[in-house]
């Protein structure tokens, strides 16, 4: 391998594994989101089924 290829290989490995390590550290610091935007409540009504039409 040429020295240029080795430098690019090392750079690519550092970017990939560095991103993995950074994401693991960030997930350990904040494992779950505590605040959510308004809305998104589950509305489980039993009476509101799909309309069935016999055509």
From TrEMBL:
Claim: Transmembrane helix is one of the keywords in the record: yes
Which residues are listed as membrane-spanning?
6-27
What the entry lists under InterPro entries is as follows:
MaAIMP_sms (IPR031596)
Q: Which domain of life is it from?
A: Bacteria
Region described as Disordered: spans on this chain: 34-55
Q: Which UniProt keywords apply?
A: Membrane, Transmembrane, Transmembrane helix
Name of the protein this chain belongs to: Methionine and alanine importer, small subunit
Q: Whose protein is this, by species?
A: Microcella alkalica
